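User: Can you help me understand a structure? I only have the sequence.
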Amino acid sequence: MIQWGSAGSTIFSLEGRMSYPCCSVFGMGESTDQNTSGAAALIEELVAQYKELSKAQARCAAVMMEFADTRSSCDRQIIAERQAAGGDPRYRAGEFAGTEIGMAVCESRFSVQKTMAMARRLRTEAPDAWDAWQAGDINHDKAQRISRTLRRLVHDTSKQLLNGVVVDVAVCKPANCSAGGSTNSSPASNPTNKTNESTVPFPTGTCPSAPTSTASAS
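Assistant: Let's start by predicting it. Here is the structure, written out as tokens:
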């Protein structure tokens, strides 16, 4: 819960158990609360842990792709040998890579394949975004939003433009902001599901410029 204090200072309240001025956590003012320094340290640790989590997510996606490529290479060799011997391989190279990964990490094949497709799209069409994810500057959710935007673009120049600016936007904007802009891209009004590339909506959208008097933090 975010509330405003008596002097206009913002107060963080965690279910009524602890509260402290935001300005003190971010170094914008003094506070007599003895828990302020500890809270600031916790915020710093939380930011660092989130960065490591994002890097781990990106590394997992990279390993998934590497495994799928390795499995496909092995399968092609086996298929070639069976075909040379007059046999029918009955499967495609890499067909079961997603299933194998899913069984290993207890995830569905669909989820694994979705992650790999997203990662390949970023690595190929938005390398700056891919590098930012690898560095932990953006998380899985933001990478997914960028991937969704890339899917709507048709021209390579539009993808290059997005790649050139989206990282700075994504790093500064919270991931829970809805995609903004005046683009009419809903399925009902845009049956081809293609975005008007002259007004490409950034995946992180536009956040409110100022909070209301009381807001819930999700």
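Now, to help you interpret it: The mean pLDDT is 76. DSSP finds seven helices and four strands in the chain. Let me know which part you'd like to focus on.
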